[in-house]
Amino acid sequence: MLNKEKQDFLSELIDSSCISSEELAECLDMGIEMLFFIEEDTFDRKDIQNVIFVIRRVINALRKEKEC
What is the DSSP string of 1-68? Predict the structure, then answer.
């Protein structure tokens, strides 16, 4: 779970980008979809999986924030 400082940083990032947390989550979701079209041998498969895992966690945190 994010500590208070990291939550504040993420909130400031969203506020300064003039988009909602849902719009940011949708953008990150699209980024995950784009990763499926990377040419073979561009990046290590495990590295791509790690990036997807982190992006998914951010998306889930953004969507939970909206529910609160």
Answer: ---HHHHHHHHHHHHHTT--HHHHHHHHHHHHHHHTTPPTTSS-HHHHHHHHHHHHHHHHHHHHHHH-
pLDDT value of residue 26: 86
Give the pair of three-digit tokens for residue 59.
Answer: 């998306």
Confidence (pTM) = 0.61
Q: What angle do CA 22, 9, 65 make, to 5 degrees?
A: 35
Phi–psi pair at 19, nearest 5 degrees: -130, 155
CA–CA separation, 22 vs 17, rounded Å?
A: 13
Centre a 10 Å sphere on the Cβ of residue 2 and count the other Cβ atoms it contains: 13
Asked if 59 contacts 52 with a C-beta cutoff of 8 angstroms, the reply is no
